[in-house]
Amino acid sequence: MPEATTDPHLPARAQVVIIGGGVIGTSVAYHLTKLGWTDVLLIEQGRLSSGTTWHAAGLVGQLRASESGTRLVQYSTRLYAELEAEVGLSTGYKRCGGVTVARTEDRMTQLRRTAASADAYGLECTLLTPDEARERYPVMQVDDLVGGIWLPGDATANPTDLTQALAKGARQRGARIVEKVRVLDVLLDATGSATRVRTDAGDVEADVVVNCAGQWAKQVGAMAGVTVPLHSAEHFYVVTEPFAGVSPDLPILRDPDGYTYFKEEVGGLVVGGFEPEAKPWVSPDQIPYPFEFQLLDEDWEHFSVLMESALLRIPALRETGIRKFYNGPESFTPDNQFILGLAPGTRNFYVGAGFNSVGIASAGGAGKALAEWIVAGEPTSDLTAVDIRRFARFNGNNRWLRDRVGEVLGLHYEISWPNREMRTARPFRRSPLHHVHEASNASFGSRMGWERPNFFAPPGSSPAITYTWAKPDWLPWVAAEHANTRSNVTVFDQTSFSKYLVVGPDAERALQWLCTGNVAVRPGRTVYTGLLNARGTYESDVTVTRLAPDEYLVVSSAATTERDQDHLRRNLPDGSAVAVVDVTSSYAVLGVMGPRSRDLLSRLTGADLSGTAFPFGTSREIDLGHATVRATRITYVGELGWELSVPTEFAVGVHEDLMAAGADLGVAGGGYYAIESLRLEKGYRAFGRELTPDYTPVDAGLLFACKLRTDIPFLGRDAVEKARAAGPRRKLVSFTVGDSDAMLWGGELVLRDGVPAGQVTSASWGATVGAAVGLAYLWDPIGRPIDAEWVRSGTYEVAVGADLLPVSVSLRPVVDPDGLRIKA
């Protein structure tokens, strides 16, 4: 193994201290120095690459589930190809291409979707027949295959060599790397700033601390009071003896239906995979020290599911010896996405960890993204999917993590069903109405740990979600909830909404700066608004209700509780006398939606709910049965309705009253699948899909929610005005599919006049229009700004599996474009 090559003596201080000398830590150091921050100290408790990095398989597959994730890996491939020329050390980077094969029609549909995504992102990808796949990979048998894809940009790299090359590049620009020094503590001051790193070789003062400690990142995070939810699992592969037909230019082969991958190594094959049920390792708090360049015991019984599949795919392996069995622990996160970013509650403690077996492919792009975040003070691209703020403290429970990680590892090669729900470590957080929904045959989904009804199955039917690319068996039940909302009244349990109070004498001033909308309204009014960053792109979208001159209620999506609060607190105007208080768990929320919602509520309250007395955007406390609730006239489904904020302990009683009083009005329960289809018919945007840190209000068509006609400054205003003047490079549109038999899920490629020119962000079956509907971003293939006329002048299709289906595109909602229903 490599010898230590750096001075073991620690400096008294450094601008940045990076904890962990794997491929992620060295990448962050490399990119910080490339950005001009040269006073960088990297501390490694063993030797560089000695933790998880050294036994990684080294696969570099470019295509990811999102555009932002794909761009990160694309950067990695460019960096690895060029790094040797810069630093004089090989990274072992080899562009060999990749073949992925399908044993089933469902898998082939996924691969067709993969190819369509590649078209959207400008990556080369070719669909293959089984015989064409064998031409690319001659030692494979293909009799049981349906087809495959070819990704010529896929590659491999040598993890240890890559780490050493990144480290050398960092050193050349001034970084200092110290090995064989163990971090014992991270000390914070009263403001939440990490000021000192304590090691077994002395203390180091720091302006910024970066936790890239791999499997140990949870322990290091705890030193700073930061939750880093990850847990290790045993991860297996073998290296075979050389055999005929294997050459150095053999591509990577992935057989996800058999859970396996293959790559060439010295004339033989690395055979590994991601078994459906993984084997968690020890608790994150019990990882042994030292644990340097070590492996765990062989477990041929557990590996047998992978080996049997490998023997089927590569028959020659039956006559080939095994040279080495690798069982190396790797850390996995609860949702199979890595963790990146500035930890909430701190001012300068960053995390880059939990890479779920894609650390080598991701390291270049992730290290660059985190370094840019550190230097700029905020992300420079859309990192929502990997942002540490998607987790809360409760996600750090080790027993919960252990139960979850056994499922997460297998997700790598499971079909990526668009509505797949995690099975393990559930139920977790429960609404006070959970037992009521359970008795009503609800099918539950999970968001930020909340158990939420996706739909209600009829009595005697199974509420289990069936996964399919076609129309699922539960679609008629969701369509009935959808139709009931359009014609009668539906009660939705939306307790999982995030809810914050912004209170203090400077509450209005603070929110005017943070919000795109004008929140200087009288108490009892609700404003829909975006929260932007300095680049003028979305950090969230929320509703803000003024409760009193010095108090506002902010309501947001379930997934963004930690993210929103962190964004609000970090961006308060200097000197603001204001506090942000999380009251999410204090209130249940019941959405009472539909043209008969006023009739239903009026049976339970003495309040005047007429359009004159209680217009859209009004919020006030009312009596409702025996309870007192806050009723806010607003909607996310495009119908007359109210969101009722109910103290948690009154939720069951209020729900009982609503269902009893509305029996003759057609009242029924509804789930989140119906909310999704209803909001898409109305063209309502969702954060994380239509609204992300890559899009401005100009792109999203939400300038009406920006106070640009006033002279009131807000965060991101300058960037929004520049974007408006330049014109959008992407434009959000509503669409309806012409084929009523088609089912869309989001992510599909959009073609304009036969040329790839967009991608669906969200899609569902629209029961009102009798066809699939959704939202999509369009762009000009040659990069010009686009306008309404450009949109209207095109002919559009969407790629659904192997078919291209015509779609009608509109800049207005496909249902009730004038909003007459919500104003009734």
UniProtKB/TrEMBL annotation:
The name this protein goes by in its record: FAD-dependent oxidoreductase
Domain called FAD dependent oxidoreductase central: residue spans: 377-431
Highest taxon above the source species: Bacteria
Pfam families: DAO (PF01266), FAO_M (PF16350), GCV_T (PF01571), GCV_T_C (PF08669)
SUPFAM superfamilies (alphabetical): Aminomethyltransferase beta-barrel domain, FAD-linked reductases, C-terminal domain, FAD/NAD(P)-binding domain, Folate-binding domain
InterPro entries the record matches: FAD-dep_OxRdtase (IPR006076), FAD/NAD-bd_sf (IPR036188), FAO_M (IPR032503), GcvT/YgfZ/DmdA (IPR028896), GcvT/YgfZ_C (IPR029043), GcvT_C (IPR013977), GCVT_N (IPR006222), TrmE/GcvT-like (IPR027266)
UniProt similarity note: Belongs to the GcvT family.
Residues covered by the GCVT N-terminal domain: 433-709
Domain FAD dependent oxidoreductase: 16-373
Domain Aminomethyltransferase C-terminal: from-to ranges: 730-816
